[in-house]
Amino acid sequence: MSAIKLTIDGQEIEVAPGTTILEAARQLGIDIPTFCHDPELPPNGACRICVVEVEKARALVASCVAPVGPDMVVHTESERGVKARKNNLSLMLANHPLDCITCEKTGECKLQDYCYRYGVASTEFEGEVKNLPYDDTNEFFLRDMNKCILCGICVGKDQLVVGAGAIDFSKRGFTTNVSPGFEDPIEESSCVFCGMCIDNCPVGALIPKYVTGKGRPWQTESVPAVCPYCSLGCNINLHVKDNEVIGVSPVMESPVNRGHLCVQGKFGWDFVHSGDRVTAPMVKTNGVFVEVSWEEALDYIVDNIKEIQSRYGADALMGLSSPKISNEESYLFQKLVRSLGTNNVDSYSKHCHASAVDGMMDAFGNAATTNSINEVAATGAVLVIGSNPAESHPILDYRVREAARNGAELIIATPDTIGLVDVSTAYLPLKEGTEVALLNAMANVIISEGLHDQDFVDKRTEGFAELKKAVDQYSPAYAAGITGLGEEEIRSAARAYASAEKAVIVSDACAGEYIGGADFVRALANLAMLTGNVGKEATGVYVPYGENNLQGMTDMGVLPNIATGYQHLKEKAVRDKFSKAWGVEISETPGMTVAEAFAGGKNTSIKAMYIMGENPVTCGGGSPEVVDYLNNLEFLVVQDIFMTETAALADVVLPQAAFAEKLGTYTNTERRVQLSQPALEPPGEVFPDWAVLVELAEWLGFEWDYAGPEEIFEEIASLTPDYSGISYQRLAEEGLQWPCPDADHPGTKFLHEEEFSRGKGLLSAVAYKPEALPVKGGHAAVSTTGAYPVCQCLSESLSKRSVIKAFKQAALSGS
Amino acid sequence: MSSEAEVAAVNQDIDLSQVDSIIEPYLGRKEMVIPILQKVQEHFGYLPRPAMEHVSRRMRIPLSRLYGVTTFYAQFKLKPRGRNIIRVCKGTACHIQGSPKISERIEEILDVESGDTTEDLRFTLEEVACIGCCALAPVIMINDDPHGRLTPDKVKDILESYE
What we know:
The structure holds two protein chains of two kinds.
Chain A: E1 4-8, E2 11-15, H1 21-27, E3 51-54, E4 61-62, E5 73-75, H2 79-94, H3 110-118, E6 141-143, H4 153-162, E7 168-170, E8 177-179, H5 196-200, E9 206-208, E10 221-226, E11 235-241, E12 244-250, H6 263-267, E13 282-285, E14 288-291, H7 294-312, E15 317-320, H8 327-339, E16 345-346, H9 354-364, E17 381-385, H10 389-392, H11 394-405, E18 409-413, E19 426-427, H12 435-448, H13 454-460, E20 461-462, H14 464-471, H15 476-483, H16 487-499, E21 503-506, H17 511-514, H18 517-530, E22 540-542, H19 550-555, E23 562-563, E24 567-568, H20 572-582, H21 594-599, E25 608-612, H22 616-619, H23 624-632, E26 635-640, E27 652-655, E28 664-667, E29 672-676, H24 689-699, H25 709-719, H26 728-733, E30 736-737, E31 761-762, E32 775-776, E33 779-780, H27 793-799, H28 804-812
Chain B: H1 3-12, H2 16-23, H3 33-44, H4 49-59, H5 63-72, E1 84-89, H6 92-96, H7 99-110, E2 123-128, E3 140-142, E4 145-147, H8 155-160
Parallel strand pairs in B: 1-2
Antiparallel strand pairs in B: 1-3, 3-4
Helix pairs in contact in B: 2-3, 2-4, 3-4
């Protein structure tokens, strides 16, 4: 259809048919007021503040719902339109408390702004006003429904975007309200406290508690940062006043979270200001930690490292880094360990994801989630299995819901009835741990009914014959017996996934931990490759990691035998490249994994460990073996923001800066490298980790000279082909997804387009193993998809110093 | 016993298997929520909260949404209703003939406000816009019986004739 030409306020514009007058006006930079309009919600047209005058039209039209017409002439600020708006505002003021002097929303209240714009100082209508009680029941925010103007945006975000279903319009006429069912307190509703109602409320009806009395919007600085919790890496703005974060808002134009957040990003940052922070280096003397100067601490560390190095050799040293610290810091950490002459560098927490990593590596040659987070919304079918994204990666859950709203088939195969079942087209409540049997049966149906993409299978993959043979026995009838599902359910799920033009599988890297490990992920990859659903936009296999920078940490070579960008150190050329760049000799001896090291028990060859921002004691489930192992070491340095269970065992504890206190980049699970700005001065004697590592390296005799994180990043880019086109200058504009080989490369939205990282994708014969369920100590372990919000064990150490603690405990107790 | 405690006590005895058999034919059809709620109300005489929560769980419709629907439409009642329903006509003719005084007297005798039910569940008092027999103004209906040409002093005897 051809474009439609119209005139708005004397300016001509051509837009696509179906465009609303409001959208057309916005394209011209004309600001029409709105209250109830939100671009991602269905058009509402309720508040009438956006009315405009259209020549030849009898009445004023609501521009947010009225489509443009050919040769339309629109006046957005005509006398008649403005009069209607003033009347509208006056009616709103008639039933709105005018306590703007103390209202927290002052300065960013749309009602206030429009009254100012149109000179509406008071109401001309006197009458009954609402007198509703405050809802002050929860930890996070206040609800004052007397201020609500009933725009309905909070209801839309809650019901459609998030799917929490906590609030809706209730009653009617003058008593219409937005409330939980039976007007229960919000605390007792199904609210998940994502805070998106607050972020989008045009008035002061919803106010986060932390902000109360702390400062006006124009007094605070807004600092762009990356959320420190899960691996989606949402973009947030930290609102800072007097070296204190007093609030967080989502970045509305973010390519990752598009203005969305979850409870962690919105409310989980208060640990930064916790009184429990470690604020100075400490050395354990006679079993008691004593605060010392940095010089004393570094001196003590260097003496011990050198002593152990000379007595046992460099391979007696090991460094464990954290998926919570920045790329620059991860890079320096492994550089420091390798400069000492050993490849013993790893991370404890990444081992929960080891099975998923193995499965993805085997199938595709790259462990990363294949496609970008937002592509999910544009797909034709979604299979959710081994995951409840609402709990592990809420923004991904929102995207799955968006796909369903856009008409995608949504197949949920989880033992628990997760929230997404509400909007699913098929729900397969399979028995715990039988996922592989279901996936094999789906492959069986797809192959036997000829629904697979033969062309893709022939050209892009290998192993089809073996797979075909292996899934032959997994008839729907056979799998039905294992999974407890109906045969027809299995068949129609397979057909729905395979028949969609584009289809996505959403799982979780943690799933490999409890569902038969790597075979589960291989079976996911099989389905995707069989149907040609990988290497194209809006397709792929999503196994997002837990922690915010797990992708970046492994990209940076915090792996025993692999340097940055997965360059393998068994290759002499790679060792030579890094030896030359760093001016040290990279050891040929393969490094130990953390599992190998801890398996050594009392006879471990590791004598000294430097643990940066990790808490193996709780991460390892508080096992006494881990505590014994760490106690058995001759020398243990722990660097953390809190005195964790692991830090308590250390000889030296160094303070660590929190994410809000340092500049650096983080790489999310869609390989997007993002810049996070410092918002605060760190407390006490705390310095960013990169600065501590540089100092320590110098004390150890290495000549490191970095002015700051940007120079460190330049070094990373120069040594890492996938990162070589990325720079701070480019990142200041927007995050970039690797591979990004040169400065003009736009980044890579999805992987495996031309060929797989391993060449041909590998279809694997995998078998359902009932014994895959871990059974230990006589107790049968039952695996489920249920994780409580903030499942990552490292986040635990953050969130238990946060208001989120109360929320998590409530979630755990099932209330 | 307070009215809320009364509701809670009544709610304890809700037999959810009845709700299940009402829902069964409609499972997966969220658009049928109004007929479902109507049938549940027909069964219990009102919409007990446990029954609403059960509909919410089985139909996978948020409770907030069900509450929105049931508080929007006047036909839905969230509180138990009395054995006898008093409808006081608030039409123009009745108003002129003194219906406010009739309402006042009923409220006084039963100690109940319009829209509510007596604690012994004997009466529910409601107001209606017009009963349609203005010649009898002021008029009330109790169940299906009209009582016309009322004066406040006639009210007590009429109420006493209902158990």
